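User: Reviewer 2 asked us to show a designed sequence for the structure in our supplementary figure. I'm pasting the structure tokens here. Could you produce the per-position amino acids so we can include them in the response letter?
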């Protein structure tokens, strides 16, 4: 995704204390949206790519530097949500979930590394809890910068939004794309059938994983209704290849899951749906 920074004419710098800020950090950079919560309008969007990073230390240094020099992250906001995009998470049925056993839940599927902290989100539209890890360095930086922020995993908002869409459409496959992996959720009439993420390096990898899921779940590619979001568009090789196998592909719109107005025609709204659809 390219770098961008856009501000609506109605954005007022002195009124940020009445605005809501949503930030998403991934391995490649960060994005944020600023919403006028009174008018229910997105008034600012920004995406920053870190460029080539040689180590985790470089990554952490980039985060620290941008938190210091980004003028709009130095303002006061009414509320703040922070999404950490990572492949490391696990869904736990609500009946089995115990917050005193977070490490046990998480370690059943993922490895908890040194200097990682565990967090969890209760999914609003299904009886499950998403348990995920964030490096302690990042949580410390974010809490020091924004003491009242709420932590989310990208899958938490993604699954809830896909479930909401399935209420209207029926059978839905949601795919949210990042630079090196994508999340996939299969929902049938508000029931979550599958949630997972897949690493990919090429467009062939990307398509293979999707088609393999369809085959494993005995879904005819002609009957699949796919909704795309994240770092993908009609000009990308990934889209052009998957469209050869699946005909019913749409890009998610913010209005599909939210009543927030999105006025920026220059940037496709499906890039930012996860930020603007946190429930």
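Assistant: Here is a per-position design you can include in the supplement:
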């Amino acid at each position: 995704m390219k770098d961008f920074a856009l501000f609506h004419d109605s954005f007022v710098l002195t009124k940020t204390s009445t605005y809501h800020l949503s930030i998403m950090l991934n391995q490649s950079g960060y994005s944020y949206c600023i919403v006028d919560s009174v008018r229910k309008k997105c008034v600012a969007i920004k995406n920053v790519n870190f460029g080539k990073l040689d180590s985790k230390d470089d990554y952490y240094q980039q985060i620290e530097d941008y938190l210091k020099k980004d003028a709009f992250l130095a303002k006061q906001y009414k509320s703040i949500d922070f999404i950490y995009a990572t492949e490391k998470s696990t869904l736990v049925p609500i009946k089995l979930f115990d917050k005193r056993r977070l490490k046990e839940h998480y370690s059943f599927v993922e490895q908890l590394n040194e200097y990682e902290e565990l967090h969890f989100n209760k999914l609003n539209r299904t009886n499950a809890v998403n348990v995920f890890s964030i490096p302690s360095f990042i949580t410390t930086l974010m809490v020091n910068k924004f003491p009242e922020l709420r932590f989310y995993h990208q899958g938490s908002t993604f699954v809830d939004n896909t479930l909401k869409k399935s209420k209207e459409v029926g059978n839905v496959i949601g795919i949210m794309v990042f630079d090196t992996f994508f999340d996939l959720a299969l929902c049938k009439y508000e029931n979550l059938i599958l949630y997972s993420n897949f690493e990919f390096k090429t467009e062939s990898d990307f398509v293979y994983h999707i088609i393999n899921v369809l085959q494993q779940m005995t879904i005819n590619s002609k009957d699949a209704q796919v909704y795309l979001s994240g770092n993908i568009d009609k000009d990308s090789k990934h889209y052009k290849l998957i469209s050869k196998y699946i005909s019913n592909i749409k890009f998610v719109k913010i209005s599909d899951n939210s009543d927030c107005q999105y006025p920026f025609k220059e940037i496709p709204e499906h890039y930012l749906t996860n930020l603007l659809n946190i429930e």
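For the response letter, you might also mention the following. The mean pLDDT is 93. The longest strand covers residues 41-49.
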